[in-house]
From TrEMBL:
Biased composition (Polar residues): 144-157
Protein name stated in the entry: Phosphonate ABC transporter, substrate-binding protein
Signal peptide residues on this chain, from the entry's feature table: none
Top-level lineage group: Bacteria
Region (Disordered): 111-130, 139-171
Pfam families: Phosphonate-bd
Amino acid sequence: MIWKSPLIPGDPIVWRKNLSETTKDKIYDFFMNYGKTPEEKAVLERLGWAPFRASSDLQLVPIRQLALFKEMQGVKSNKGLNEQDKLAKTTEIQAQLDDLDRLNNALSAMSSVSKSGAVNRRSDKTPRRRIRQCAGVDAGCGASTLSGLQDRSQTCKPSPSPHPSAAGSRF
């Protein structure tokens, strides 16, 4: 194997950071409760989806990494920048990439510990606000990454569907 691509989230639903808590709660409640009746399940099945699951902006880390890598390549190939400016910008971008790598490593370590049963998983009594908290590292997609979105977007994501046309996800 020469290179392994990170898993890329498929069609996450995101909202702006500056939405009111009331609006966020209404949107969140809709997606978390949609797909429970037979009619709603039929709609989702026609779309190749399953009911939605709670998620966070952590699933956008691979997107942020790809955007930073692209930005780094642009800086390196920019003939209009002198070497000192290139070094300063690439150092700044590399620091952001290093932060995201540390975040990924920490999440991987936590995931392997929780799979072994050493750490209790969250119960259904965990408040939504806690589930929706973002990581300390800015893992969201900024306006320069996805047009119109604010940094540290919150997301809900469809769960993998047994439907053959639906793409699976590790989230």
